[in-house]
Amino acid sequence: MRKAARACGLAALLALAGCKAELYRALPEQEANEMIALLIRSGIQADKMVAKDGTDSIEVDKARFGEAVTLLHDAGYPRKQFETMGDVFRSSGLVASPLQERARFLYALSQELSATISQIDGVISARVSVVLPQNDILDRSPTPSSASVFVKYDSRFDAGKLVPQIKMLVADSVQGLGYDKVSVIEVPVAPPLPVSAPPASISTLAYAEAAIGGFLVATGLAAAAWLARARLARLVSLLPGRRKAAAAGRDILPQGRG
């Protein structure tokens, strides 16, 4: 009876485990924790799995996979991975032209600024483009540098406070760039709303019902068999032949000395 119950319980766990789907993999630990916290606050159960390389993956119920993807996307997850100056200028073994070096510098600068702005509270994602014109040192009216910033931010934060911070950060990071030459386009994003758990899909219900039903049937059969054996043993013990045999056995037992 115990073996049957254990076997059915294991089958139920395996069936329910098959209802999970991997959402994202190779995530930094902090980002994975933030994503799981957001999912749980929104009513979606999520599990974290740690890989051998130290990165994390996230699993959710198959029935809520699409909902979880949409929720995380609206919140800016997974975060864009930006390159650093070191990544861009890592030695490639080839001699680059001045034009290539300039393009790489501008790209690296934009990546660094985008990564920094993305760390500001309330900013979901950011992208920065910097323009550094090649002016002649003898030109009396050089073309000024400029920059444009695209920002998606949480609508619960005040854009009036975010924009000045962003413009000052960019202007102070680029030589010859004035505060008034930094343009910022901000797009508010509504915070995700808590959601209630939807009815499980047909496949999920089928797995769960099959596993639980099998467990109950096996447990019931084992219990019925045990009760039947107990009743049969009691009936046999009450038969007349069994009583006479038991009495005869008592009569032939050696008597103690008086």
Automatic annotation (TrEMBL):
Cellular component terms (Gene Ontology): cell outer membrane
Main localization category: membrane
UniProt keyword list: Cell outer membrane, Lipoprotein, Membrane, Palmitate, Signal, Transmembrane, Transmembrane helix
GO biological process terms held by the UniProt record: protein secretion
Location of the Flagellar M-ring N-terminal domain: 21-186
Membrane topology annotation: Lipid-anchor
Signal peptide as annotated in the record: 1-17
Membrane-crossing residue ranges in chain numbering: 205-228
Protein location: Cell outer membrane
Family: Belongs to the YscJ lipoprotein family.
Name listed for the protein in its UniProt record: Lipoprotein
Species this protein is from: Endobacter medicaginis
